[in-house]
Design a protein that fits this description.
InterPro entries: DNA-bd_HTH_TetR-type_CS, Homeodomain-like_sf, HTH-type_TetR-like_transc_reg, HTH_TetR, MftR_C, Tscrpt_reg_TetR-type. By secondary structure, the protein is an all-alpha fold. Helix content is 64%, strand content 0%. The protein folds into two domains: 41 residues, Homeodomain-like (Arc Repressor Mutant, subunit A); 135 residues, Tetracycline Repressor, domain 2, CATH 1.10.357. The chain contains nine helices and no strands. The longest helix is centred in the middle third of the chain and has 23 residues. It is globular and about 50 Å long. The two termini are 29 Å apart.
Length: 202
């Protein structure tokens, strides 16, 4: 879920996804998510409202950053896993890697996830993003097991992986000194211990 992007030629150099996120997050922290408008964010960035909408279709999309691009990277990373790697290991490692961030990005990511997980106005929009994330895992599982992505097992692995991730994020937000990737790793390992990872082997 990175915020980097190539700047479009002809647009102000200070205007990109990352700059918009920083300005929006500052406003969200100062005056609240619900009270902040797209006009407020456009003024803070120094662009017109139309320009802002070229980067983010709605205010609800801003906390998610460049999520669609991150999902494409996630899909490519899973597809590149060698066939001899057990499916349980591939999903486990893929989920942990997807949620690994540089130390310098952790504070902003923590703010991002607190917004996503605790802001009522974002919940319906978040459900759409969650479904897209689960779908990446379900498609990977289905491909490895020669199943349909909407089949019970691929769908279940997607839902369980998301539930474990959300639980890890909630704990990470409650315990600032904890390691997000460690919490994810522990949660996924616990599931495999009690559910039996051999059931997810091709």
């Amino acid at each position: 879920m990175t915020a980097s992007s190539a700047r479009a030629q002809g647009r102000p150099s200070a205007t990109d996804h990352a700059a918009i996120e920083r300005a929006a997050f500052a406003l969200f922290a100062e005056q609240g998510f619900d009270e902040t408008t797209m006009e407020d964010i456009a003024r803070a960035v120094g662009v017109g409202r139309r320009t802002l909408f070229r980067y983010f279709p709605s205010k609800n999309d801003i906390p998610w950053g460049q999520f669609d691009e991150s999902l494409e990277y996630f899909r490519r990373q899973l597809a590149a896993v060698p066939a001899d790697v057990p499916l349980a290991d591939a999903v486990h490692d893929g989920v942990v890697a997807f949620n690994r961030f540089d130390d310098a990005a952790l504070d902003q990511h923590r703010f991002r996830m607190r917004l996503i997980l605790t802001t009522p106005a974002l919940q319906a929009h978040s459900a759409i993003k969650y479904e897209a994330w689960r779908r990446v895992i379900a498609e990977f599982v289905a491909q490895r097991l020669s199943l349909e992505p909407d089949g019970q097992l691929p769908r279940l692995v997607g839902h369980v992986s998301l539930a474990l991730s959300v639980a890890a994020y909630e704990q990470w937000l409650d315990e600032p000194a904890s390691s997000l990737t460690d919490l994810l790793d522990q949660g996924l390992s616990l599931l495999r211990t009690y559910a039996g990872s051999e059931r997810l082997r091709p």
